[in-house]
Model the fold of this input.
Amino acid sequence: MRYLLRRAGFYLIALWAAVTFNFVIPRLMPGDPLQNYIAKLQNQGLTPATIAALRKEFGADPSVPLWHQYLDYLNALLHGQLGTSTSEFPTPVAQILAQSLPWTICLVGAAVLLSFIIGTLLGVLFAWRRGSWYDTTLPPALTFLSAIPYFWMALALLYVFGMMLGWFPTSDAYDLSSFPNGPEWSLDFILSMVQHAALPVITLIIGSLAQWVLTMRNAMVTTLSEDYLLMAQAKGLPALRVVFAYAARNAILPSITSFSISLGLVVSGSLLTEIVFNYPGIGYHLFRGASESDYALVEGGFLVVALTVLAANFLAELVYSVLDPRIRHGRA
Amino acid sequence: MQVTNLGESPVDTAALIEQADQRHRGPFLNALRLLYRNPKIAAGLGILLLFVLMALAAPLLTPYPPDGPQSQVAQGAQPPSPEHILGTTSLGQDMFSQIAYGARVSLLIGFVAATGSTLLQVIFGLSSAYFGGLIDEALSLLINVFLVLPGLPLAIVLASLANASGVGKNEFVIAMVLLFTSWAYGARVLRSQTLSLKEREFVTAARSMGEVTWRTIFLEILPNEIALVASTYVGTFVYALGAEVALEFLGLGDVSHASWGSILFWAQLNGALITGQWWLFVPAGVCVALVCGALTLVNFGIDELANPSLRQAMPRKLRKLLKTRAVVA
Done:
């Protein structure tokens, strides 16, 4: 329990850090980006009243002292106000992000789950058959695949399977012409969703698979040399039982420890993949925000992604403490 | 990024024997021997060297300039032909010259970001572990916060703010952004290794002989984890190169200047996929993948050097030596 409280405390601090970055960075940058940004808006033909409102929203009023700006900013965040998007004026940023977050979570969730399961099983297999032809050839091949940038892999898959072969749709999260009223609960809709998500998810799996395979393989190689495994084999236990109930069970812990790092990479990859596939998730909106200098949208997007990643990491640690009693009892 | 598993393995003796075996050879021969014994490092470094040479010798390899008004040498995007082996871009620029000159920008940014980031990693990781106590608490907190915050969105925020601030879109800004968002992982790895190293006798000995703190850290402890520093350096380089190409692809870099990322930015902008102009995006992507793949190979090699249990099979001579050692002992 103490362990969990400590971890919860850490995640709160990390969240505070993310929030504070958002506040501090634009104010630390040389040349005052906020004022430049507002000056740019004036050229876009927004009315002075709108600009005054935006200025107040950003807390960029020079007459207000800094600490007060900070409090105002925190207060606005607590009420879920992330400002107004200028690229999709006058939609609130919070609304845009609330609509796009579920898509990103589905994409990343499916990719992480599938690549964790496939990768870990492959890692077990490679370690068990160490030195076989597939153990010597496949890990380097997978590593090469994961060295390819996510978005370029996405471009290549989109080109081959979407454009040339026409097997998969090339944009959006579902068929917009069949479902003009937006998402609904029906089998057809879910099928359309799966069809649209298939290529992005495959991209993410290819990119992140090697990480799981190698972590699991290396941990398994170490675990397999332990005496208790020799004992288990000597007792005449079936091979499958030795591999999964004895070896893999202990070797899986490093994979779960590295979850936070790979999650961060998959989220980053997903943001880029969404841009290539025109998938209406957070990444797509981050990109639009960045290219149209919609500063509120970019900052809000970062905050939402950070919050989601922190929550997912906290969940992973809960799972870890269930799996590893040493952590629960503070003896790690 | 792969997991390095560098425990304090008893195989240190193997390294010692190897060292004694090589003492009478020169450093150059030793390096060659290392490459010969470790084909992964050799292959990886070989590929990397090819790209560095291509970047350096770009003006000799291609007569076409990469940007500027002189760079338009054809009418729009043309598929590969004898004059333009990789085709031309939508602006009629020679693609091979874009790639060769672009390698300069991309590799330089990766190099600067990875080098700066590694310096930060060493300073933060080692001092956090060595001093312990409150300093460790504070630095670990900082490291862990940076580790859980997603790097690319943070980099996008920083780069787009830098654009808005009038610093301008340039390579230096991108390198700084990448440096800032990439140091945490290595710092944590180095911290945990230093935690175990600082309890060793040689550190106690150095301290009791009155060695100054910074000398103990950087001249006693650091050389003992140089393999780990090397592998995190290579890992950071891979990350930085990929993220740099991604940021440029998003248009957050200087897209008027040829680099592998800006080539992809223009390819995407001009709808290279829809029009089937594969040569606009294939070469740059293959280059990034080759360089990152080569660096990852180097990293595998370093892991194998430092952790012999990962090697496929030990060289026969070494195994025999170890055996006789064991018998004597």
